[in-house]
Design a protein that fits this description.
Blueprint (H helix, E strand, L loop, with lengths): L1 E4 L5 E4 L8 H14 L1 E4 L6 H9 L4 E2 L6 E2 L2 E9 L24 E8 L7 E5 H6 L3 H7 L3 E5 L1 H4 L24 E5 L1 E3 L6 E3 L6 E4 L4 H15 L5 E4 L6 E5 L3 E5 L8 E8 L7
Parallel strand pairs: 2-3
Antiparallel strand pairs: 1-2, 3-15, 4-17, 5-6, 6-17, 7-15, 7-17, 8-14, 8-16, 9-10, 9-13, 11-12
Bound molecules: succinic acid.
Length: about 280
């Protein structure tokens, strides 16, 4: 197996067949997640069964509370946009599951049906974003925590008449009850490397500040993280797979393929409690 750093964020993994993964591959992938945050695989022909088996090498599977499952494979969630739908899933910067007390490790996304053009996913390297902060900001963030929530994104208040477009793809608003507090800077559980752990979709408050002060600080952090130097734009091809670690990345799925179908299979793996 060979791992090559990608510009901005993540790394490409070559010389592995995700249908036949051995224990040494699993350790190497964990080490690489702790260094690069997101791994990209090309030319895989992974079956749903082996997608599940690969995911289970890294922990228990988190069955998605909000996304529709793939028929006959309840452990796999569909990330789907039909040609007539206008909205896609995950089109703004986020870190999955930061609203959980024990956030998921990450997700393994397999391309099943792609539009002819568009539908790329952009990842941000939160290790590099942290390391590029000046010392004063690192010092300030080291003592702060933030609250994360799913209510405003997946809860009842998020569904208005004009959002019916998401019907059949997102639901279960009653499950959107999670709020969680995490340090703003965490240490990655695999590598100990520090990363910024707040994100525009789910972080709602800096706990040690007033709402206004905290919002101002979060905006400053977000502008810094959004810099293109920390980004990698992954162009999906048939057979592509991405495995991202939520503790080290943000991502967003571009919504630039109206009139075309995009179907991805996503499995999310459970993580561990985070510390600063
Ligand atoms: C997601 O946020 O899980 C969706 C990513 C994608 O569809 O590329």
């Amino acid at each position: 197996m060979e791992i090559t750093a990608a510009p901005g964020a993540g790394a490409y993994v070559h010389g592995i067949d995700l249908n036949n993964v051995v224990p040494e591959d699993v350790q190497a992938i964990k080490d690489a997640l702790g260094q690069y945050g997101v791994l990209f695989f090309r030319d895989q022909n992974v079956s749903p069964e082996n997608h599940i088996a690969f995911a289970e090498c890294f922990g228990a599977i988190n069955i998605n509370r909000f996304f529709s499952p793939v028929a006959e494979y309840p452990k796999i969630a569909q990330v789907l946009k039909e040609p007539q739908q206008k909205k896609n899933i995950g089109q703004t910067w986020h870190t999955d599951h930061s609203y959980d007390q024990i956030p998921a490790l990450g997700s393994i996304l397999v391309a099943r049906e792609l539009p002819k053009t568009g539908g790329d996913t952009i990842f941000v390297n939160q290790f590099a974003a942290y390391e590029a902060l000046d010392n004063e900001m690192k010092q300030l963030l080291s003592s702060l925590t933030a609250t994360h929530s799913s209510r405003h994104v997946f809860g009842r208040q998020a569904y208005k008449e004009e959002d019916n477009d998401l019907t059949g793809r997102l639901g279960n608003t009653d499950a959107a009850t999670q709020d969680a507090i995490h340090p703003i800077v965490i240490r990655h559980p695999f590598s100990g490397r520090k990363a910024i752990y707040v994100n525009p979709d789910f972080t709602i408050k800096v706990n040690e500040m007033t709402q206004a002060e905290g919002d101002e600080l979060l905006q400053k952090i977000y502008s810094h993280c959004e810099s293109e130097v920390f980004q990698h734009r992954f162009q999906w091809q048939p057979g592509s797979v991405a495995f991202w670690d939520n503790r080290a990345t943000w991502h967003k799925a571009l919504n630039d393929y109206d009139g075309h179908r995009r179907l991805m299979h996503r499995i999310t793996v459970e993580g561990v409690a985070l510390s600063g």
